[in-house]
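hi support,

uploading two proteins for the ticket. first:
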Amino acid sequence: MPRLFDVRLKTTEKSGIYLLVQQSGLNLANFDWADEESEEWIDTDSLEFKISVLTHRPTGYYCKFGGTHIEYSPGPDQRVETVNHRDRWAVKSGVTQVWLEELRREVDAPDLWATIGQEKALSTAASTTLDNRLFTAAEQNLIAAKLDEIKGYLLEEQQFAAEEAEFVEQRFAYFKESSTRMGRKDWLNLLLGGLVSLAIGLALDPEKARGLLRLAGVVFQSLWGMAQGYLP
């Protein structure tokens, strides 16, 4: 049986990490310590270690203090990253700080996909058996006016950089142009995907993203009379 090397953190080291978590502003009650056994390779040799693992319970993200490396998730560049700690506390504490910064960023980030999923009117309409006839000239004019209304809501009270505002203008110009040549079902799916992409790409806050799709579902009901029964 291979020898099991005990490299679990000392009490003083865990206390140091306690202070780092406290300084990060994250809730200490959401973290759990556990012991695990880990196999690590040094050159061509496989060694077994008993290690300490700190897990953020609500997200499942973790930091494993191994015999030769620290494995942590999330990382700055990848979901899981490893760093050789060279058996130095300065490296271990430095990596822990990086991990906590990335963890705080993930915890604080709004889940726009979940937020957008709460607004069903436009997506439900896009998935129905709507016919795919071309829009009439009158409908195209109405679409242009409604798109200006939605664009106004999006730009209202938002401090976008110049290139972001220009991108919004370009996307809405494309929505208008495509309504002159696409069937109504295809166009509605295009609009839905385009608005979701804008919300994600512009990093809208959840309420703004939800309001964007809610408004889109409402303003286009006059075109098809479809919002009845779909809107909350």
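and the second one:
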Amino acid sequence: MRAALLLTALVTDGSGRRLPPGSIDRIVIDKSDHELVAFDGGGGVVLRFSVAIGSGGNGPKRVEGDGRTPEGVYRIDSRHRSRPFHRFLHVSYPNAADRAAFRRGLRDGTIPRGARIGGDIGIHGAPRGPLGTFHKAVDWTAGCIAVDDEEIEELFAAVRPNAEVEVRP
């Protein structure tokens, strides 16, 4: 029943236009501009949101706990409700390039032995608590991409399974 409701739900793009489920097949996140842009199957921009990213500063994610948001091309590989973040679109980090860079770092000593590559990266809503509606004023996540709750609702309903996610520096 829940899947049927999700499939019949429609969302708007802020201009009143309705986005059918599965209409977003590509998302580009520009970390330096703090922007998420969603595209439809024809390559047209359908949504544009400001975002908060990882608190770890510039550069790609290297290890679990570094607070950085990964950079590269990924997929939306699952989705779920999230108690702390409203909705969660899981991103397929780490990809093959991330794993290769991690192994190189272990070999050359730039990544300490015993470190883990991490995972559980996604696009999600605002945190519960003191940041609330001001959560985009500072980069606060552990490596995820955060949007407002209303925005994750739009994405959650309109992003097709396995949609591409490109995260740029």
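thanks. also noticed: The longest helix spans residues 96-108.
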